[in-house]
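Residues and backbone
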Amino acid sequence: MEPLIESLNYILQNIINALQRGSFYAVISIGYSMVYGVLMLFNFAHGDIFMVGTYIGFGIATVFLATLTGLVPAPLIFLATVLVTMFLASWIGVFVEVAGYRPLRQAPRASAAITGLMIGIIFETGILIMLGAKRLSFPPLMETVNYHIGGIYITNVKAMIIILSLLLMLALHAFIQKTKWGMAMRAMSYDFLAVPLMGISINIIAPLTFAVGAGLASVAGILYGQAYPILDPYMGVLLGWKAFVAAILGGRGSIKGAAMAGYLLGFIEIFVATIFPSTSGSHCLFHYPDHPDLQAQGIFWYGTQYQTAALISVDPTHTGTSNGNCKKISTNVFDCPHAGLVSGHPHSSTDRIFLGI
């Protein structure tokens, strides 16, 4: 009976991890689908809009935490950060549409695709020029609280990411279905050539679509920064392409399909890494400084390009993600805050992980 319970906990833990991962893909992929539905083109700069939105959120969060901590409750600081970041990032989306895509509406689709890639490179280079290549750490907007329910580990941050992502998608659905602006967007997606003849200006609906997509991507960036608090100018490339795959898989122009495909992609990514460990990175051995007699083998997902890492799975009964990305100490050694919680030994505050063992 006990092995059955452990297997069930193992599956449920991975489902929670997949819901968190899929939340990022779902929210970002919606932006791709919205733009395609209105203009019949994919905004290939959307992944980098997500990156810029994350950096904007980083700046807003830093200012608010420095000025409002102690004066305003933490949930209000988080809410203010989200709202201000959405507002500012939405103008990035408007700028992309007006400056990048509007002049190319009558041009071949390949021109628009190449322009999107160019805009993404401009955003990446701009961040490098303004802030440098040094990776930044996104400040925590709430204190992390760990919950142990049965054999499942979950944090308040992870629960917040999953719930808030679902609420955002429900709010977007209500906006599209219940408002005149949403009705105009749906009409434009049905026939973007005929609808302007009925008095609906594409020069208003198209920027609005880009603004909504950019705002959602910026919220995804803030949530991503709370889960994986390492900011990098190229962080939007891989996430953007994965979200693009979700948008295609969900049906071009289908917002519901893109959201569902985003979650599906999250499930595939987590469960493939769990079932086939060699696809996720490197095997590792945990060493617990607080408990030298304890050891555990696990799976470590790391990026050698950025020398960062995030723990995603521990064999055989516990999986999860570390509360923060790990810091590289030497070639095969990382310090991982709170990874002991993931591996089933929550009393260890800092675990040193050795790769390639």
Q: What stands out?
A: The longest strand covers residues 295-303. Confidence is low (pLDDT under 50) at residues 279-325, 328-334, 337-357. The chain has two domains: 2-274, 277-355.
